[in-house]
Amino acid sequence: MKCDKCGNELVNDSCEYCMWKGYAGPGLQIKEAIKEINETSRTNEKAKPKRLILVHKETGKEVYEGEIMADSWGEMVRITGWEKPHKPSSTGRIYCRDVDGGENQFFDRELFPSVFGCEWREVT
Fold first, then answer.
1. Less Cβ around it within 10 Å: N or C end of the chain?
2. Beta strand extents in 20-92 (DSSP E only)
3. What does DSSP assign to residue 9?
4. Which tens digits make up the pLDDT trace of 102-114?
């Protein structure tokens, strides 16, 4: 018997050439799955990147780099940067440095936004 697509001889009722080229068998299934994933991600609203900003929970004002804030222990720190959440279950991190000459005045600390009463908000 011969293959309907390419005309080659069938081996065990399948065409090795078409399977190798991805025209049939597992190769075709993989190509179709990748195509479906790509089409879904283009139309899926959740797949679109979100713009997040770090804000004070109480005031809603944006946190800026270099701002001096008190953490939940009452220590004054300077905000040196942050890392946005990398997945839905993450809260991200805020990097800070002591300003009152404490033991951490030369080193950045990495703390949760809730330590400063902050949260991430999506900007439209």
1. C
2. 51-56, 68-70, 76-83
3. B
4. 676 677 889 999 9
Residues 96/51/48/84 CA torsion (nearest 10 deg):
0
pLDDT digits (tens, 9 = 90+) for 51-64: 899 999 999 999 99
Closest residue by Cα to residue 96 from 84, 88, 87, 105: 105
Sign of the Cα pseudo-torsion (124, 80, 58, 46, in order): positive
SS3 93: strand
The widest CA-to-CA distance across the chain, in whole angstroms, is 85
User: Can you give the length of the chain in residues?
Assistant: 124
Hey, what amino acid is at 120? W
* pLDDT interval class at 101 (50, 70, 90): confident
- Tokens representing 55 are 């804000």
pLDDT at 64: 94
